[in-house]
Design goal:
Blueprint (H helix, E strand, L loop, with lengths): L6 H8 L2 E7 L5 H10 L3 E3 L2 H11 L9 H19 L5 E5 L2 H11 L5 H12 L6 E5 L15 H17 L3 E5 L4 H15 L1
Parallel strand pairs: 1-3, 1-4, 2-3, 4-5
Helix pairs in contact: 2-8, 3-4, 4-5, 5-6, 5-7
Length: 196
């Protein structure tokens, strides 16, 4: 029995696999993420909702209309990703990524901020996230909230833009169809067991 491993093997052991959950607003990503967390997986929450909630609490009812809002989301996404890297867990699920922020810029009809382009270059070059992305499909309606003011028809357009953005940057989408939350979480956990 070999008691010694090479530096390369040691480095591979320490690499965290980061899987993204993405899709339309209101599709159930966050609820699925909580189910995965209950199953023992490490999860990283969505940055955009936190930024919007914080900005609304400070008096801006529609912070997504501010160009600086996208930059704040990108900054929080990066901080969460780099901080969670220090935790040395073998696998993490992320509620959205900078590619979603790219899709948001496209949906709002805004140019992609330089900070976002730099971040996408970084995550691409460093291969921060796994190639396979779980695309949580719409559930047939979109429940409005204070942070999510979008109609179902608008959400379908946003879904198409998300899909285009992820494909543009070379990610492989794994469809997670509408269904019971527990079944969707189980499907993802089952696929992860095959991928890892």
């Amino acid at each position: 029995m070999n008691l010694y491993i090479s530096q390369q093997e040691w480095d591979q052991e320490l690499v965290t696999k980061r899987y993204i959950l993405t899709g339309v607003p209101g599709a159930g990503k966050t609820t699925i993420l909580r189910q995965l967390q209950e199953r023992g997986f490490d999860v990283v929450d969505e940055a955009a909702t936190e930024v919007i909630t914080r900005e609304q609490a400070e008096g801006d009812a529609e912070p997504w209309n501010q160009a600086a809002s996208v930059q704040k989301v990108v900054d929080l996404q990066r901080r969460r990703q780099t901080q969670s890297t220090a935790s040395d867990v073998p696998l993490q699920f992320y509620d959205r990524s900078p590619i979603c922020t790219h899709a948001l810029s496209a949906y709002l009809g805004r140019p992609v901020p330089e900070m976002l382009s730099v971040e996408i270059d970084r995550i691409t070059h460093e291969r921060v996230y796994e190639q396979q992305v779980f695309f949580i499909r719409n559930i047939g309606f979109c429940e409005p909230t204070a942070a999510r003011r979008i109609s179902f028809q608008e959400s379908l357009a946003f879904e198409r833009i998300h899909e285009q953005s992820y494909r543009q940057f070379g990610y492989d989408l794994i469809d997670v169809p509408a269904g019971e939350v527990a079944h969707r979480a189980a499907m993802i956990a089952d696929i992860i067991s095959q991928l890892t």
